[in-house]
Structure formats: C-alpha cells, structure tokens
C-alpha cells in the first residue's frame, strides 16, 4: 500500500492506495469534486486540525473499486445528506447541477447502475463519502486518465 500524509496550513491530507489499484482506470477528474467539497465546505469555518483522508481499495473479488473520502469538517445537515443519497432525485435533475450533484450524475453516465455512492455525515463531526465503481473487464486495465488523476492521489 502507498500511504502518505501532506501537511499545510495546520491541516492534514492522508491517502492510502493499494498497489493493484494503480492499474485500474477511472475517468479523469472524477474524484476531484468530492475532495474539493471536503476542503471548501467541510473545512469552512474550521481554524485548524482538519483531516482529509482518501482510501482507494479493490473489493475482495476485485470487481469493484472502493473510494472512501472522509473529513473531520463541519458535516452536513441531515436533509442535505438525504438529498445526496436519493439516487432518483439526483439523476432526475432535481439537484443543482453543480458540485457533488454533478459528480454523481457523471458517475452514473460513465458507469450506469453499477456506480454506487453513499454520503454519511454528522454535523460538527465530519463527512464520509463512499463511492463504488465497477472495474473494467478489459485485459489491460491501465488507462492514461487514471495515471494523471492518480498523480495527486497515489
């Protein structure tokens, strides 16, 4: 496993990426909105001690990529969490079309019903976003998009 910690402005960014995950292709910038959301909104009004953790692992059967993005920021209102977990509402265009709503729609566009997500959050404790994406059955699973996106993660 590749594990590293980056420090800046009193906050900590941790990542843990399994070695075999580095050859799994995902669409370019797919994870960026989730990480950006943690930084811009989760840590808003937090003066220090913020921790952002990203874990990327394969399921036991190696058919799903699991991405867990976790922060100890201000959390979300329960109603907001409910909206993000309402797949029909998100995909039906009831969301704002920006930020996480757009990212969930793109996941569905790229991976269809096989893409899964769950948002859990407790106000003043933090947020965990779990994303599950199917791994391609293609012989060569290495995709240039992952290598570029992974440069900042693994």
Any overview of this molecule?
The longest helix has 13 residues, at 99-111. A 6-stranded mixed β-sheet has the order 1-2-3-4-6-5. Strand 5 (116-122) and strand 6 (126-134) form a beta hairpin. By secondary structure, it is an alpha+beta fold. It has helices at 32-42, 78-85, 87-91, 99-111, 144-150; strands at 2-8, 11-17, 51-58, 64-71, 116-122, 126-134.
Return residue spans where pLDDT drops below 50 for at least 5 consecutive residues. Answer: 5-9, 138-154
| β-strand number | 6
The DSSP helix count reads 5
Hey, roughly how much beta strand do the residues contain? 25-35%
Main sheet? 6 strands, mixed
User: Whole-number average pLDDT?
Assistant: 81
Q: Helix amount, in percent?
A: 25-40%
- Structural class designation: alpha+beta
Q: Helix and strand string, N-terminal first? A: EEHEEHHHEEH
Span between termini:
9 Å
Overall body shape: globular
Q: Which strand order spans the largest sheet, edge to edge or round the barrel?
A: 1-2-3-4-6-5
Cα radius of gyration in angstroms? 15 Å
Spell out the blueprint of helices and strands.
Elements: E1 2-8, E2 11-17, H1 32-42, E3 51-58, E4 64-71, H2 78-85, H3 87-91, H4 99-111, E5 116-122, E6 126-134, H5 144-150
Parallel strand pairs: 2-3
Antiparallel strand pairs: 1-2, 3-4, 4-6, 5-6
